[in-house]
Amino acid sequence: MDALVEVTGLTKRYGDTLAVDGVDLTVLPGEVYGFLGPNGAGKTTTLRILTGLIAPTSGEVRVLGGMPGQSGVLGRTGSMIESPAFYPYLSGLDNLRLLAEYAAVPRRKIDEVLDLVDLTDRARDRFSTYSLGMKQRLGVAAALLKDPELVILDEPTNGLDPAGMRDMRRLIRELGSGGRTVLLSSHLLGEVQQICDRVGIIAAGRMVAEHNVEDLRAEQELVVRATPRDRAQSVLAGFGAVHRYDDTLRVQVDPRRAAEVNRVLVEAGIEVSELRSTERALEDVFFELTTEEKADVG
Amino acid sequence: MSGSYRAEVLKLRKRSAVWVLFGAGLVLSLIFGYLLPYLGYVTGDENPQTDGVPRSEILRGMLPERVMDNTIGGYPVFAGALALVLGAIVVGGEYTWGTLKTILTQRPGRGAVLASQFLGLATMIAVWVLGIFAACAACSVGVAAAENTAMDWPGLTAVLEGLAGGWLVLMTWCLAGAVLAVAFRNVALPIGLGVVWILGVETLLAGVVSSLLPDLEFLSDALPGANAGALVFSVTGMVAADAPPGVRDAVGGGRALLTLLGYCAIFALLAAWTTRRRDVT
Q: What is the structure's pLDDT at B239?
């Protein structure tokens, strides 16, 4: 299956600052790909490169088989980069009209996308009077105007209220299930977990992991509640990495070794009140990966 | 390209600031071309502003035969400043609102987007010129009718030359505003710098050069304002004594025309080069 987005060794440097450092990224047709990372990790810079807004310092980038920013590629890509930017003195409808003129899109598409993002009733109001949620929805409508094969959305739920976030996520999921390929960036783990098929995690400009969401979550560990906890932690360290989590310890070890873990703890005079296996939350994986990256960089 | 052009025209047509600037240019043209001279004319010898100028001369300046003087006489300075503001707000607004990234992620390339913007501005400047011409023509007809004098119009060629010359003057300043906006990715700074240049620096430089450094006059004669004034002077055929501020025969009409065309080309190429090379952040 040919990738719609192929990025190899992408680097972007601003003076002494390395914003993106050797990122590799592959987005396959029909998937919803989550580009996850903390603020300032390099997500928006990467997406700007993919849309041709900025030029990479080095590395190879192919989007829909062409170079980013080429007319043919832009015509098949819909995007919303950072906050949605429109002409404040024009109505939402007029903003879409002029984008339709730029993109050579028939005007009937405007009504379609306005309906899709539920903005038909406010379409004739000035953009400057829109709430943040309406602005985001208009941004998505603009991204869909060209009926694109690839949709690139940068933090699409930013600033939305819970209902708006839910609607936006449902819309993105629908786009993905409708055969479109979606690449979205987010710093919200739950969001990525809910709507993405695959995820790339970026931290400090470097890609630290690229997996199926389920694979990342499927890594299991043992949750241990024991006293005294400090002694238990040092004993458990012999099995694998141990993290404190509230009043429990989490050990990265194959859950099939639970009996052995229990025996060793008891033999060491430690009282074990809970021992169970658990699936790791994406949040844990994310923090683990991004913390390791920070430590490496530091 | 035609779609991009239509989009630019839509943006300009619906932007109130564009019409406010046009309105300011129109009102200033009518005030200085007709209202103040007419007040001077009717108050006659009691008006110190028109002391020594025959009333018949004041009247003649408002009649249809001099309509081109009043239409484009103010272009090198105050209307030029308004055109510069137009270029700066239209192009600079794309940076301050962040809309440049929105339009550059549609289908057309950067060169096509910028070319469409300039074509849209050229169209709007033409609307300004025609609008001011129509208003001045209407006023001159009104004055001629009120004073019961003959309505002698300039020849068609003179009108077309005047309109084209006026359009080129305004377009030069408009592109200057646009290239400053691209350079600074902003609206306020280009307007500030440009207006100070048009209204102050050029006049000051010309004054210093002519009084203290006459050997450097060739430099001040190469400035856009000097050539704008010279082109207007040439196409209207006005006499030096009647010329409004900024209009003088610093250089010949042909040279002024070529110099302004050169400035337009340089401004457009600089804007295109910068836009194509620079990251849109």
A: 78
Residue B104 distance to chain A (closest CA, Å): 7
Residue of chain A whose Cα is closest to the Cα of B278: A54
Binding-site residues on chain A for chain B (CB distance < 8 A): 48, 51-55, 69, 71, 74-75, 77, 79, 81-90, 94, 97-99, 101-104, 142, 146
- Phi, psi (degrees; rounded to nearest 5) at A111: -60, -40
- Does the domain at A5-216 match CATH 3.90.1010.10? Answer given as no
Q: What is the pLDDT of residues A189-229, one digit of tens each?
A: 777 888 888 999 998 899 988 888 777 666 678 899 999 99
Give burial (CB, 10 Å; 0-12/13-18/19+) of A210.
Answer: middle
B280 touches chain A (CB under 8 A): yes
Q: Indicate the CATH number of A220-279 among 3.30.70.980, 2.40.30.10, 3.40.50.20, 3.90.1030.10.
A: 3.30.70.980
Mean pLDDT of A51-66: 95
Interatomic CA distance for residues B265 and B80, integer angstroms:
17
Give residue limits of the domains in chain A.
5-216, 220-279
The strand pairing partners of A18, in sequence order, are A13
A138 min Cα distance to partner chain B (Å): 12
CA B248 vs CA B30, B239, B256: distances in Å: 21, 9, 11
How far apart CA A172 and CA A181 sit, in angstroms, is 10
User: Is the Cβ pair B108, A83 closer than 8 Å?
Assistant: no
Size of interface A-B (CB pairs under 8 A): 84
Nearest-Cα residue of chain B relative to residue A86: B99
Distance CA B71, CA A141 (A): 45
Q: What is the pLDDT of residues B150-160, one digit of tens each?
A: 889 999 999 99
Reported confidence tier of residue B207, pLDDT bands at 50, 70, 90: confident
Q: Closest-CA residue in chain A for B279?
A: A54
Contact A6, A26 (CB under 8 A): yes
- Considering only CB atoms, which chain B residues are within 8 Å of A90? 11, 14
pLDDT bracket for residue A298 (50, 70, 90)? very low
B54 part of contact set with chain A, CB < 8 Å: no
